[in-house]
Design goal:
This protein has 126 residues and is an alpha/beta fold. Helix content is 46%, strand content 19%. It is globular, with a radius of gyration of 13 Å.
Length: 126
């Protein structure tokens, strides 16, 4: 269980994708909450600390780069921000400029996400 103790927030408006990410991360030992939109996500971040936020960019209520900036304002660098998106440029650059630590484009292999989480200092420090 390489992600044991890691607190992760999944932000994804597509329910099936949100549920799959949540199930896979929990199977790896992570403590996972999820949100279907940016408003729910900012409320959760205001209430508790997360080690990682895994977010889509195409949310129904808040543009992805705006959400990333808001999350950064609330948590600083204490929370890693991972983006998994089907969008291309210029959205990828905007996400990085807003403070995303890593951006994966769909389709992304689960092993790449897991490898990033396990090799980062997050899993060791949780």
């Amino acid at each position: 269980m390489g992600l044991r103790g890691l607190r992760i927030l999944v932000i994804e408006d597509a329910q099936d994708i949100r549920e799959v990410f949540t199930l896979l991360l929990r199977a790896e030992g992570a403590d996972v909450d999820s949100a279907a939109n940016g408003r729910e996500a900012t409320e959760l971040v205001a209430q508790q600390r997360f080690d990682v936020v895994l977010s889509d960019l195409g949310l129904p209520d808040i543009p992805g780069d705006v959400l990333i900036r808001e999350l950064r304002a609330r948590s600083g660098r204490a929370t890693r921000v991972m983006v998994v998106t089907g969008y291309g440029e210029p959205f990828l650059t905007r996400a990085r400029q807003a403070g995303a630590d890593v951006v994966f484009t769909k389709p992304v292999e689960w092993s790449r996400i897991l490898e990033y989480l396990e090799r980062s200092d997050l899993a060791a420090s949780a």
